[in-house]
Amino acid sequence: MTDLINPSIMPIINRNGMSAHRISSLIYLKEFVDRVSSKNYISKPDLEKLEKKYGIFPDIITWGDYFQADVATAHAFKDDDELLRSLNTIKFDIISSYLIFNDKGNDFYKWVDSHENASFSDAEISDEEREIEHLKILKQYYVEMGITNTFTEAEIAWHSSFSDAMAI
Questions:
Q1: Region of residue 125 (phi > 0: left; psi between -120 and 50: alpha; otherwise: beta)
Q2: For residue 155, which phi and psi values (nearest 5 degrees)?
Q3: What pairs with residue 37 in β-bridges?
Q4: From the DSSP assignment, how many helices (H) and strands (E) are in the chain?
Q5: What percent of the chain stands above pLDDT 70?
Q6: Backbone angles phi, psi at 41, to 5 degrees
Q7: What is the distance between the alpha carbons of residues 161 and 150, in angstroms, rounded to a whole number?
Q8: How far apart are alpha carbons 76 and 12 in whole angstroms?
Q9: I need a surface site. Which of 58, 68, 97, 152 has the fewest CB within 10 A?
Q10: What sign does the CA torsion over 100, 132, 39, 153 have?
């Protein structure tokens, strides 16, 4: 059985308290990410090595564990609206990464990788360079997480509502 709340964030909950809305949002994030990821954050051979070395498994094993712990920690002292914005950004980017990179050939991957990281300050980076940097992040999500099309109809409709709004 998997934990709905990763044990690594229990100290945050115990120290700061947490609203039911925040807890349910973090549970949804973990379930969403774990459902659409075909790979774990830590591979099975690495888990076996860690267990052999330390006698226990780490708390962060799946990508859902990782994102839940990251968001909970980063937003421990922020309001629920900021946490929800972060969660929605992650969800949007994961769905986008699938839609962009699924069924793309190696040429597209190489094109994304061929653009050097900009070494300028944010003020000097063009919009195109920002887009390419974002594409690199989305590609990293797609490849490292092994994102699959196990999105619900509601999630795709939610994602499409943003795309439709940007087109207007």
A1: beta
A2: -70, -40
A3: 147
A4: 8, 0
A5: 90
A6: -65, -40
A7: 19
A8: 7
A9: 152
A10: negative
The DSSP secondary structure of 99-110, one letter per residue, reads HHHTT--HHHHH
Is residue 78 within 8 A of residue 128, CB to CB? The reply is no
Q: Specify the pTM.
A: 0.86
Task: Measure the N-to-C terminal CA separation of the chain; round to a whole number of Å.
Answer: 45
Alpha-carbon span 116 to 123, nearest angstrom: 17
- 28 has a pLDDT exceeding 80: yes
At residue 158, the pLDDT reads 94
pLDDT of 121 reads 56
Q: Which two tokens stand for residue 158?
A: 């939610």
Q: Which two tokens stand for residue 34?
A: 């774990």
Q: What pLDDT sits at residue 3?
A: 81
Task: Report how far residue 55's alpha carbon sits from residue 38's, in angstroms, rounded to the nearest whole number.
Answer: 26
Do 50 and 58 form a contact (C-beta atoms < 8 A)? yes
Q: What is the mean pLDDT of residues 39-61?
A: 92
CB burial of 58-93 (b: ≥16 within 10 Å; e: otherwise) equals: eebbbbbbbbbbbbbeebeeeeeeebeebbeebbeb
Q: Are 29 and 88 in contact (CB under 8 A)?
A: no
